[in-house]
Amino acid sequence: MRDYVVERIGDRAGVLVADETGFVKKGRASAGVQRQYSGTAGKTEKCQIGTFLCYATARGRALIDREFYLPKSWTGDRDRCRRAAVPDAVEFATKPQQAQAMLERTVAAGVPFSWFTADEAYGQNPGLRGWLEDQDTRRLPARPDRGSRGTSKAVRSRKGSTSGAICPLNSSGTTKSAGEETACKSAESCA
Questions:
Q1: Minimal CA–CA distance to 169: which of 159, 179, 183?
Q2: Where does the record place Basic and acidic residues bias (predicted)?
Q3: How many domains are contained in the chain?
Q4: DSSP label at 21?
C-alpha cells in the first residue's frame, strides 16, 4: 500500500504524521482489549488501540503504516495472548516505539518527506526524539508547554537542517513560513 501511495502522491515536501486511535469493544476475548483511554470515545473505555502513520502531501493523504498496540496486561499473559491468536514473538512496545518502528520502515523504503509530526504523547518521548535527531529528521512533535495550561508547543530538531519555521500544532498560533503552509495544512488534515 505504501508504494502505491508514494507512486501517486509522493513528494519531497511530504509530511509524516503519527497518531493512535481507539476501537471500542465490549468483549474481553479480542486481542488488546482493556479499559484504556480512547480519543475516539473521549474517555476511558474498553477498546483496542492502533498506532498509525499518515503520509500527507499537497496532492493527497493516506495511511501508509500501522501497528497494533498490545498493553502490558496482555504481553505479560502469554496464555491470554495465545487464546487471542497473538504470536509468542509479540512483545510490549509503547506507542512512541511503534511510531519509530513505522518511521524506520518508511525511511528504509525511501519514502520522500520533509517533516514528521505527532502530538505530545510522542513529542515528550526521549527515545523517539533522540532517534529523530540521529536521523537528522525535521520534526514537529508537540511537547507539553510548561508555561501554559494544557497546551502543547511544537519543537524542532536541534541539528541545522530546519528552516526556522514551525507549523502550529494547536491553537497557540505558532508562526510558519509560506513554504510550509501547504505541508502544515496537509498534516492537520491527517490528525
A1: 183
A2: 131-148
A3: 1
A4: E
Tens digit of each residue's pLDDT (9 = 90 or more) over 27-44: 878 999 999 999 889 999
The three cell numbers locating residue 53: 502513520
What is the value of pTM for the model shown? 0.76
Task: Give 84's contacts (C-beta < 8 A, 6+ positions apart).
Answer: 29, 30, 31, 32, 74
Distance, in Å, from the CA atom of 64 to the CA atom of 168, rounded to the nearest integer, reads 23
Sequence-distant (6+) residues with CB within 8 A of 164 are 177
Mean pLDDT of the chain: 79
The residue behind cell 510550509 is 180
Distance, C-alpha 182 to centroid of its chain = 19
> Could you tell me how many residues make up the chain?
191
Please give the sequence-ordered ranges of beta strands (E in DSSP) within 81-183, or none if there are none: 115-118, 142-144, 152-154
Return all residues near 168 (Cβ < 8 A) that are at least 6 apart: 154, 174, 175, 176, 184
Range of the structural domain that residue 102 is part of: 2-190
DSSP letter (8 states) at residue 29:
S
The CA–CA distances, whole Å, from 70 to 31, 38, 50, 129, 154 equal 7, 14, 9, 22, 28
Q: What are the beta bridge partners of residue 37?
A: 44
Catalogue the E-assigned strands of the chain.
15-24, 34-38, 43-57, 60-69, 115-118, 142-144, 152-154
